[in-house]
Amino acid sequence: MYLESIPRRLGGLGRHLMDAGRGSNERVIVRADLSRDVPHDVTLALRMLAAPAHRVARMKREVVHIVISPGRMLSTDEVENVLRAIEKEYGIPEGSARLVVEHEKGQRARHYHVVYSMVSEATGRALRFNRSGDRDEMLARRFEIELGEKIQPSTRVERTAELLRERGLANLAEIAAQGPVAEKGRRTSKAETRQNDRLGVDQVLLDERLRQAWRQSGNDMSRLRLELDAMGFCLAAGDQRIAGVPIVMLVDVETLKSTSLTRHLNRLALHGDGPRFREIAIGASFGELPPLAETKADLRKDALPRSADAVLIEFDRMVAEMEADGEHAEAAKARKGRARLAARLSAEERDDLRTRQDSVKSRYRQRDRIRRARVNRAFIAAKLFGTREIRKAAFYLVAIGILATGAGLIPALAAAGVAVATIPSYSSARRLRATADWEATLERSQMARELADETRSFFRQRVIRQKAASKAAHAEKTRLRIHRNRKRGAPIPQPPPANRRAGQRSRSIRRGGPER
Questions:
Q1: Where are stretches of biased composition, namely Basic residues (predicted)?
Q2: Does residue 362 carry a pLDDT above 60?
């Protein structure tokens, strides 16, 4: 049986209790027969249970969430007995309000989530859950014995037997003392189990990938990092330090799950009969590593192109299998589908292309706005100076102003005539608008050409980047293959000569002949 008591704040507890559907609980039942003094609505019930904690100063946790996962189906009476024993162990007053939710998931037995308020209804003070790990373990062993379940391996066998004796259960203590002992660090921790559930990690597959990397490294820690890279892992420096050195964290590139490399290696017993791996020795083997938060941030940025590459790899495998089975027509269709997928732009590339195209359009829009402002200004001026009287007044004002400067009459009249002639009329404004429309038409075609040129330039640069990335990936595969061949003692393949003449020249030099 698995049993854990978790004092906590509400947070997403209601969402977790009612989570049902694909990849989660197949069925969720609010057990009204086991719950006490709370409504059937889970959200409202949780708020009622959390309310007493809000009245206690410096109260950090509002409720206690107890998970009970038995090895077989339990009757209602058996569940009642389990709840009574838990309440007695943790000093929860008899008759306290509680919410019980039952989950049905796959082939496993139904498990239960029980929620109490963190404040005792009798005293108004916070409940105590000190050393809850040992006490949860003791309760789990006790229920396994009383309900006839198989006793699970534990690292706390002696402590469990001692706690049972302290509670006057000597007969159960003797049975628990004979239970199987689990090697410390060999079981998946609760925190790791929660991380697996949150990220959707297949722990069995993850362990097998690490075993494969360890086997291919030849049990050599200096080669392990290359093999981990090939298996889809990367290493980072954790926040916790031992002897001033950050612990080495193993990060799964696909799911971003992070765990201690030393603990993971020890849990899989990859050391054989030798001494267990030590954190300080592992840290010294790999040297300085990037921080865990920075590593995960970089992996999240690269998640989209990495997932697209994974889909293309699956396409290549399917095409190869179809060709091997003689399904050439279907293989040709799959190749076309792969080509369409490979040509599809990522979100980042689409944004880049749109930005470059918008920069071209914005320049033309700005030029068109300035041109329209000139046309509007011409019509405004034509409207202001449209009548003959206003033009005469403007002529006289300009001439008088020039005469006031001391100029002669003839220059003043000539300058006033030129000034009045430059005032736009409706006909000149219409001509300016027609010219502006013609220039805008020409510029639209010019803008289309520039957009096409910019788009071609973008895709040309994209192809160059893809070829460079492909060459880098090929070089990395070649490096790993050479590393494996060197490790196995196989001959290292030599690169072919650049051309036939270069090959002949190299053979001539090796034979001692003249170089042409």
A1: 480-489
A2: yes
State how far Cα 412 lies from the chain centre.
Answer: 79
Q: Which two tokens stand for residue 179?
A: 């239970």
Are residues 207 and 253 both part of a single domain? Answer: yes
∠ at Cα 269 (265, 275), nearest 5°? 90
Contact indicator for 47, 117 with CB cutoff of 8 Å = no
One domain for residues 252 and 334? no
Q: How many domains does the chain have?
A: 4
90 near 65, Cβ under 8 Å? no
Q: Give the separation between CA 381 and CA 419, rounded to whole angstroms.
A: 13
Q: Is residue 32 part of a domain?
A: yes
User: Could you tell me what percentage of the chain is helix, strand and coil, using 3-state DSSP and rounding each to the nearest 5?
Assistant: 60, 10, 30
Residues 103 and 11 occupy one common structural domain: yes
Long-range contacts of the stretch 40-43 (C-beta < 8 A, 24+): 42/14, 42/17, 42/18, 42/99, 42/101, 43/14
pLDDT digits over 106-165, tens only? 778 899 999 999 998 888 888 888 888 889 999 999 999 999 888 888 878 888 899 999
Digit-coded pLDDT (tens) for 163-211 = 999 989 899 899 988 888 776 656 666 677 777 777 777 788 888 888 8
* Same domain assignment for residues 287 and 325: no
Tell which residue, 25, 4, 2, 5, has the closest CA to residue 15: 25
Q: Assess whether 58 and 70 both reside in one domain.
A: yes
Mean local confidence (pLDDT), 455-477: 76
